[in-house]
Specification:
The protein is α/β, with parallel strands linked by helices. The chain folds into two domains: 186 residues, Rossmann fold (3-Layer(aba) Sandwich); 122 residues, Aspartate Aminotransferase, domain 1, CATH 3.90.1150.30. It is built from ten helices and 13 strands. It has a seven-stranded mixed sheet, with helices on both faces. Helix 4 links the parallel strand 4 and strand 5. Helix 1 packs across helix 6 and helix 7 crosses helix 9. It binds glycinamide ribonucleotide (GAR). The site of glycinamide ribonucleotide has 14 residues, from helix 1, strand 5 and helix 6. Glycinamide ribonucleotide binds next to helix 1, strand 5 and helix 6.
């Protein structure tokens, strides 16, 4: 099976050594992500030169004189223009607008040179030394609107040595950062395509529809109307095909053929289900979950008794 790598954009403001660590880690054949864009608010950032020399697309836009919201919008447009799926902040020294953070919710990581929640913000090494900490360190966390807040997904403590200065300590913490960041990024992008995670995404949407429940049918999570017909299945490595897909009802053979012709990598005819069903791959890394919600709602509607669809029709009018 050809592995589609998850497309990552890295935002930097300076040296970009963490970006370089991510980039070189991604050169390994089994790395689940690739760096497709390095973008900076500092056109002089040395990391841009390195990225360009390594054949990675770059984008630079000085923030000076721009409203924060406009600058964030331009960065967002660059990321989207490069079909980026996940964002890594490698020393991106900008406070991000809640709108930008919201657009990358759950798909943006930051690396920070302290053992969070200790020492958010700047001067982390100075604080660790001044407080006599035995260990400094680094953290990788999911970015939320709280500065250097958000769930920590990985941490590495780094011993403070006698005679350490902020500079000597920073140099060692940076070595730890370079090891940690790539591992955390790889975990995050693969977690998103794990069969369990994908099935959970379907479950959340399917069970939000009226009067539905879940059973196991032929080893597959299966969703239906309580004591009624089934409208969705999640195919998990069926007969060892290594794929995760959603099976929903459609209008028939014509629609099935049209979908498969439109996007043969995503749609297929599910074995044993006949013409009235379509399988939609969930593990391609670019699943539009809004569209999956629509497929589920449509499939539900096609089998739901009128007394239930009637309720939805009434609700839709408001
Ligand atoms: C790194 O130490 C990173 O942890 C820190 O900036 C440095 C960037 O170095 N980030 C923060 O302080 C974010 N709050 P790099 O440009 O060589 O990767």
């Amino acid at each position: 099976m050809v592995m589609r790598r998850v497309r990552v954009g890295v935002l930097i403001s300076g040296t970009g050594s963490n970006m370089a660590a991510l980039l070189y880690a991604s050169r390994a054949a089994d790395c689940p992500y690739e760096i497709v864009l390095v973008a900076s608010n500092n056109p002089q950032a040395p990391g841009l030169t390195l990225a360009a020399a390594e054949g990675v697309a770059t984008f630079a836009l000085a923030h000076k004189g721009m409203a924060r919201a406009d600058h964030d919008l331009a960065m967002d447009a660059a990321l989207r223009g490069a079909d980026v799926q996940f964002v890594a902040l490698g020393g991106y020294m900008r406070i991000l607008t809640p709108e930008f953070v919201g657009r990358w919710e759950g798909r943006m990581l930051n690396i920070h040179p302290s053992l969070l929640p200790k020492y958010p913000g700047l001067h982390t090494y100075e604080q660790a030394l001044a407080n006599g900490d035995t260990h400094a360190g680094c953290s990788v966390h999911i970015v939320t609107t709280e500065l250097d807040g958000g769930p920590v997904v990985g941490q590495t403590p780094v011993a403070v040595l006698p005679g350490d200065t902020p500079e000597t300590l920073a140099a060692r913490v940076l070595i730890a950062e370079h090891q940690l960041f790539s591992r955390c990024l790889a975990d995050l992008v693969t977690q998103g395509s794990s069969p369990e995670h994908l099935a959970a995404q379907v479950r959340e949407r399917a069970l939000a529809l009226p009067e539905t429940d879940e059973v196991v049918s032929h080893g597959m999570p299966c969703f239906g109307i309580v004591k009624g017909k089934k409208f969705a299945y999640v195919s998990l490595n069926h007969h060892g095909d290594g794929q995760t897909a959603l099976l929903v009802k459609i209008s028939g053979l014509d629609e099935q053929a049209m979908l498969i012709e439109q996007d043969p990598a995503r749609y297929y005819r599910p074995a044993y289900f006949g013409d009235g069903w379509i399988a939609i791959r969930l593990d391609l890394g670019d699943t539009d979950w809004g569209a999956i919600g629509d497929w589920l709602a449509r499939s539900w509607r096609s089998i739901a008794p009128r007394k239930l669809t009637g309720l939805i029709d009434v609700a839709d009018q408001f």
